[in-house]
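Objective 1b. Sequence-to-structure analysis of AI-2E family transporter.
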Amino acid sequence: MNAPRSIPPPPPDRPDWRAARDVPHLLRILWAQPPVRLIAYLLLLLAAVRALMWGSQLLASVTVTVIAAYGLAFLANPLLAWLESRRVSRMVGVLLLLVVTIALTTLLVMTVSSQVTGLINGIPDLARNLKDITSSGLDRLDSVKGAEGIKDSLSKYIDEQTTNLTTNTGPLLERLVNAGPDVLGTLSSLLGWLGQLGFIVTLAMYFMLDYDRAGRSVLSVFPRRWQPTLLRLSDDVSSSFGGFLRGQLLLMLSTAVLATAGLMALNVPNAVALGLLSGLLSIVPYVGIVVAAAIPMLLAISQGALTVGLVAALYFIINQVQGNVLGPLIMGRTMRLSPAAILIALLVGLAVAGVPGAILAVPLTTLFKRWLKRYWMTTPAYRGGGSIDSGQ
């Protein structure tokens, strides 16, 4: 005969808040109510978000300074590690890197400043050449019914934009001379930027000297059981984005050097400034090299059609060398992606988020690939069953 099953006693009723003896008892009764706890948690979350937004606005400049300094140390760390493997101490390596950077920056500024001024002063000539090309291409539209005013409207638009651009981007020296009482304000602003830059470089030097310790200090803030996972995630992100940034910097530098050397050989004016501009624009996939080629081609119109064609051929060669030689050589080693994967990632990033998406597509794809290998290809669900290689 089976024993009668015991029936559990009914749960006690929640006490009514009106039965509270004192304030602490009332608070305990209210906290026992799930809706009260939900409202309290939502209010705490809202207060935390507001405090975070207030703190981010208050410490925005400090945050940007620290991130910029740590980014410089992050980019320089592989070079310092390589010097350490050649028995050069980190202190000597940091000082050597600082001296070389200051020397190259000073030389570059002294060389490029006059060319940048000449390039800005040459904007009217550049616009005039563009206007001549456009007018010659639209001459036949005058005979087309309904298109008589296109050439005049386009010429007027080019003239207006040239005037605005020349007025707004005049040489800095001319602004300082004609600014009158605003000179002191301009100089103080310039000194403020130089001081900020000096502080970033100084902080970056300390990060370079204690790079491993700085990373461990940030990691030690989190709970111990989280630290191994956070360390793996930080290694994945640093490898993906660090390799992309270093590879992109090398590609930009190679583009600037090739463009400068080629333009100097063709006697195109302001070749160094145009080469640096080409290196900066090369960060934008596909479109950047086209814009970089258009400016020197317009400047070379006054030297004849042969020079224009040679400039176009120069940038075509640079594009081919970058895409077929330097790109696979540098990005292939740093990112470990096939050319087809890189092209698909660029197209997807461009379709989703435009130019910023295309720029971030390659490092995000590399990060996704690393996480796929680490977290999916090691699971029993992936390893179970047959494989393509085994024919099962």
